[in-house]
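User: I'm writing a short methods note and want a consistent example. For 3-methyladenine DNA glycosylase, I'll paste the sequence; you return only the structure tokens, no commentary, since I'll be parsing the reply automatically.
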Amino acid sequence: MDQPGLTTDENGQIHCTWRTAAPEYPHYHDCEWGVPVADDVQLYEKICLEGFQAGMAWITILRKREQFRAAFEGFDFRRVAQYGEADIERLMQDPGIVRNRAKIVSTINNARRACELVEETGSLARWLWAFEPADDERPAVVDMAYWTGNPTSAASERLSKALKKRGWTFVGPTTMYALMQAMGMVNDHLEGCCCRPQIEALRRQFKRP
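Assistant:
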């Protein structure tokens, strides 16, 4: 019998149960979620998409990700930082993305804040990875409550507060915890999931920016 939160697939591999919730999830679970990321553009994209997810299911965002990338020019934050009112109106007419004005405006605002941060510190990745929690801040085994509530952590609250102080928006502590999971800053594949040790190995090999 599978443990709570884990499911055995047709090949006998044990995975986090949420992997089976949609056809798009197996690849995302196996190949992306938790893999450490150090590229500034990819990190800006992840921040934006996690912000768009606020109040929505992640699968909705994942299914629209390619349309988001097309609409926001590959999430090149230097380009997005130049967007004005005409771009906001263009994006509000784009059926391929989530047409929420506040979130679109936030994406443009955060592009400008990203440019400022890179100008000041040299790297969005280096700045973000400085918030990686210490080992004693992370649970050894992820609590199943993380999948039934709105997870945060002390580290995600610190990151959220620091970004808000710099003028970023849609970067609450729950959204930032989701970012930490997605970018590999924490490994929240459940104990027993075949991907958990793989992600741990990648995290050990990963050179922090």
